[in-house]
Amino acid sequence: MDEATFNLPIGPQHPFLKEPAKFDFEIRGEEIVGARMNIGYNHRGIEKACEARNYYQCLYLLERVCGICSHSHTTAFIQGVEEIMKLEVPRRGLYLRTIVCELERLHSHLLWLGVAAHEVGFDSLFMLVWRDRETVMDILESISGNRVNYAINTLGGVRRDINEEQRKKIIDMLGVLRKRLDYYARIGTNEPSFVGRIQGVGMLPAKRAAEMCAVGPFARASAVDTDVRRDDPYAAYRELDFKVVTYDSCDILGRVIVRVLEMLESCKMIEQLLTNLPEGDIALPKVPRKAPAGVAVSRYEAPRGEDVHFIRSNGSDKPERVRVRAPTMANLEAATESVIGAYVADIPIAIASIDPCFSCTDRMAIVLRDRKNGTRVETWEGLRRYGVEWYRKNRGIRF
Amino acid sequence: MSEEFEAKLREAFPTSMVTLGTNGRLWVTLNPNELVNAVGVLRDRFSIIQLAVIVGEDLRDSFMANYVFTGQKKVVVLQVRMDHQNPEVPSLARMIPGAMVYERELKDLFGINPIGHPDLRRQAVPEDWPEGVYPLRKDVQLNRGEDANAQEAK
Questions:
Q1: Considering the entire predicted model, what is its pTM?
Q2: How far are the Cα atoms of A93, A134, A167, A342 from residue A64, in angstroms, in the given order?
Q3: Which of A6, A218, A336, B80 is 20 to 30 A off residue A96, Cα-Cα?
Q4: Which long-range contacts (CB under 8 A, 24 or more apart) does A131-136 make?
Q5: How distant is the Cα of B11 from the closest Cα of chain A, in angstroms?
């Protein structure tokens, strides 16, 4: 570190899925010239705990890996276990599972779009988006009984069925949501102040994204054409007609576009699933407690990217080894690099652009170590306001 | 399609055991010193470059590291078996920057040493965690008793 650069540590107290992360930025003037990250402050030992629990108990434990993509983790795990036990899940069960998958993607992306708008100071978009997210939460509640941690999965199927009345109501609600999403797609990609904050910021070239093993919408916005739903179809995706959205601008604008268009695809998929919902059982009547010795690699396209579960069974009712690879884990390294070259004012939106869990961001403290003027402590909210102010003064962007 | 790919893999790895698992997953068993070469072969001959995860396992008499590669709509798992006394694997950090976080976890949770890793700070365990205790090894017990069921039954 030479004389002209300062060290800007951020974190670790802000929850990223499994683990809060700490970032060390090296800044020269306003520009970020180096970045390093450290994670693992919140390793809860879930993988070890799974080895002492049976498959049903693991399911409820893994549901709590993440509050936003709880269904992703249980589905990824359950698919692996069903593969080892050689269970054939009834088609209606698979369809219902997939409906919840896509609803979860909708609510997660809407949540992210709101957060992204808030980080750049576009609070009216944030409020509109979060209002419409309630529609999705209501649908999820009517299907599963819960707003988060739906607990809809069980070995060999799902736990709750939907009736004809619910089916019609969900289709109606989705129709309203789709119109709103079209509007957000126009705003998010054309509103000059919003575009001014996110265009050309947080660049991650396509080649680097592939090398750093980035996944999900973050990679797809860097023109990496990857989607587990198409490449390695699970649940009911083999029978669905959908497009994989990619974009080649490699910046945050691209990540907004990819996520918004993905939401429209999700709406289409849910409508297809509800219209073609097959009749029959939703789960197998009897499932063995013990799994034969075996091993499975289960992949699942979570809202944030590919979720990988590795399961080894040993013939008993408990797994021998469970490994959970959440998508943020794969994206952190690439996200850290994408911030290099941006301004301090871009840090909140650049880190938020990989869609980590940011529910406690306001409690986060940032220490600015300035060699001339001493040390100053900033909160995440302070840094956000600084970013909004900086762009207002230097670029004339006002909301 | 998987069978055809399996045959190609067998040809590319003549000295290793290649098995076709469930759901089209292909498993290749390697010695630690063959790993770097094998990753190069996957990259150059099959264009499979996405490292999804490295899974460490304690098989009680030995350790195993599973390198899960995805790409070209395929999943290939490179399995490296290691001695229980002195587990070591070559680091892939120079070839695949994305491997760094997973290798740090291997070191923290299993004590498997990735040789040549540029940045082995602690990641999954706290900074004051005792030296030489690797929580995911089978001989390390949960401190509230080994069996959660027994615990709950009491």
A1: 0.87
A2: 22, 21, 28, 35
A3: A218
A4: A132/A177, A132/A180, A132/A181, A133/A107, A135/A173, A135/A176, A135/A177, A136/A103, A136/A106, A136/A107, A136/A110, A136/A177
A5: 24
Distances from the Cα of A31 to the Cαs of A7, A28, A50, B37, in angstroms? 12, 5, 44, 39
* Among the listed residues A72, A11, A8, the one whose alpha carbon sits nearest the alpha carbon of residue A299: A72
Chain A environment of B148 (Cβ under 8 Å) = 49, 52-53, 57
Q: A323, B55: Cβ pair inside 8 Å?
A: yes
pLDDT of residue A377: 59
> Based on the number of CB atoms within 10 Å of its own CB, is A117 exposed (0-12), middle (13-18) or buried (19 or more)?
buried
C-alpha–C-alpha distance, residues B43 and B26, integer Å: 16
Structure tokens at A290: 């013990």
3-state secondary structure (DSSP) of residue A178? helix
Distance CA B108, CA A208 (A): 27
**Confidence bin at A362 (pLDDT 50/70/90):** very low
Determine the number of helices (DSSP H) and then strands (DSSP E) in chain B. 4, 7
Name which residue leads in pLDDT, A10 or B29.
B29
Give the separation between CA B1 and CA A206, rounded to whole angstroms.
29
- The gap from C-alpha A229 to its chain's centroid, in whole angstroms, comes to 15
**Over A275-299, what HEC string results?**
HCCCCCCCECCCCCCCCCCEEEEEE
Query: 3-state SS string over A184-225?
Result: HHHHHHHCHHHHHHHCCCCCCCHHHHHHCCCCHHHHHCCCCC
| pLDDT band at B144; cut points 50, 70, 90 | low
CA pair distance A115, B1, nearest whole angstrom = 43
Helix-strand-coil percent breakdown of chain A, rounded to 5?
50, 15, 35
- Which candidate, A220, A270, A264, A260, places its Cα nearest to that of A240? A270
Q: Is B68 exposed, middle or buried (0-12, 13-18, 19+ CB in 10 A)?
A: buried
Q: In this structure, are residues B32 and B4 in contact, taking their beta carbons and an 8 Å threshold?
A: no
Are A39 and B50 an interchain contact pair (Cβ–Cβ within 8 Å)?
no
To the nearest whole Å, the CA of A220 is away from the closest chain B CA by: 14
Tokens of A203: 């660049």
CA distance A383 to A395: 17
CA distance A288 to A271: 34
Chain B residues in contact with A295 (beta carbon < 8 A):
21
What is the spatial distance between Cα A358 and Cα A372, in angstroms, rounded to a whole number?
32
DSSP letter assigned to residue A362? G
Cis amide linkage into residue A217, ω under 30° from 0: no
Higher pLDDT, A174 or B126: A174
According to DSSP, the β-strands at A153-154 and A31-39 are: unpaired
* Type of residue found at A240: L
Cβ atoms of A82 and A59 closer than 8 Å:
no
